Amino acid sequence: MKKSVLVAIVSALAVLAMSLPSLFAFDVPDGITITVPEGEKPLDKFPEVQFNHSSHASIQCSKCHHMFEGCGEIMPCRDCHVSRDSRKDPSSYYAAWHSKTDSSCLGCHRSMKAEGKETGPVTCMKECHPQK
């Protein structure tokens, strides 16, 4: 009797352990358009950027969403990075995608390229901001 209860408990724990990843999974949109902060005019020179989450599935969410701590809502970059006054300001809209740190698109892509890895766009007009 005790053995069968123990087997049932261990089996239930095993099933629970296998289902944990799906319990904490996020509904991640795949093809998204990165736009300027609300109320800001887009620059005609640099069109909106198309971003594909599935290409980045092997990267932890917190690498880009650096304020995310594993629970709660993941905010888009433009919700915090709103200033367009200074490109050098680390919290600026521009820096969110173009800084030299690995938490920005360009910084991460350049680091990967330097390591000889396949990477995403590292140039402005030809790759990231193609003209329409």
From TrEMBL:
<keyword id="KW-0249">Electron transport</keyword>
<feature type="binding site" description="axial binding residue">
    <location>
        <position position="105"/>
    </location>
    <ligand>
        <name>heme c 1</name>
    </ligand>
</feature>
<keyword id="KW-0349">Heme</keyword>
<dbReference type="GO" id="GO:0009055">
    <property type="term" value="F:electron transfer activity"/>
</dbReference>
<feature type="binding site" description="axial binding residue">
    <location>
        <position position="129"/>
    </location>
    <ligand>
        <name>heme c 1</name>
    </ligand>
</feature>
<feature type="binding site" description="axial binding residue">
    <location>
        <position position="109"/>
    </location>
    <ligand>
        <name>heme c 1</name>
    </ligand>
</feature>
<dbReference type="InterPro" id="IPR036280">
    <property type="entry name" value="Multihaem_cyt_sf"/>
</dbReference>
<feature type="binding site" description="axial binding residue">
    <location>
        <position position="108"/>
    </location>
    <ligand>
        <name>heme c 1</name>
    </ligand>
</feature>
<feature type="binding site" description="covalent">
    <location>
        <position position="64"/>
    </location>
    <ligand>
        <name>heme c 1</name>
    </ligand>
</feature>
<feature type="binding site" description="axial binding residue">
    <location>
        <position position="124"/>
    </location>
    <ligand>
        <name>heme c 1</name>
    </ligand>
</feature>
<feature type="binding site" description="axial binding residue">
    <location>
        <position position="53"/>
    </location>
    <ligand>
        <name>heme c 1</name>
    </ligand>
</feature>
<feature type="binding site" description="covalent">
    <location>
        <position position="80"/>
    </location>
    <ligand>
        <name>heme c 2</name>
    </ligand>
</feature>
<feature type="binding site" description="axial binding residue">
    <location>
        <position position="56"/>
    </location>
    <ligand>
        <name>heme c 1</name>
    </ligand>
</feature>
<keyword id="KW-0408">Iron</keyword>
<feature type="binding site" description="axial binding residue">
    <location>
        <position position="81"/>
    </location>
    <ligand>
        <name>heme c 1</name>
    </ligand>
</feature>
<protein>
    <submittedName>
        <fullName>Cytochrome C</fullName>
    </submittedName>
</protein>
<feature type="binding site" description="axial binding residue">
    <location>
        <position position="128"/>
    </location>
    <ligand>
        <name>heme c 1</name>
    </ligand>
</feature>
<keyword id="KW-0813">Transport</keyword>
<feature type="signal peptide">
    <location>
        <begin position="1"/>
        <end position="25"/>
    </location>
</feature>
<keyword id="KW-0732">Signal</keyword>
<feature type="binding site" description="axial binding residue">
    <location>
        <position position="77"/>
    </location>
    <ligand>
        <name>heme c 1</name>
    </ligand>
</feature>
<dbReference type="GO" id="GO:0020037">
    <property type="term" value="F:heme binding"/>
</dbReference>
<dbReference type="InterPro" id="IPR020942">
    <property type="entry name" value="Cyt_c_III_dom"/>
</dbReference>
<feature type="binding site" description="axial binding residue">
    <location>
        <position position="61"/>
    </location>
    <ligand>
        <name>heme c 1</name>
    </ligand>
</feature>
<dbReference type="Pfam" id="PF02085">
    <property type="entry name" value="Cytochrom_CIII"/>
</dbReference>
<feature type="binding site" description="axial binding residue">
    <location>
        <position position="66"/>
    </location>
    <ligand>
        <name>heme c 1</name>
    </ligand>
</feature>
<keyword id="KW-0479">Metal-binding</keyword>
<dbReference type="InterPro" id="IPR002322">
    <property type="entry name" value="Cyt_c_III"/>
</dbReference>
<feature type="binding site" description="axial binding residue">
    <location>
        <position position="65"/>
    </location>
    <ligand>
        <name>heme c 1</name>
    </ligand>
</feature>
<dbReference type="GO" id="GO:0046872">
    <property type="term" value="F:metal ion binding"/>
</dbReference>
<feature type="domain" description="Class III cytochrome C">
    <location>
        <begin position="30"/>
        <end position="129"/>
    </location>
</feature>
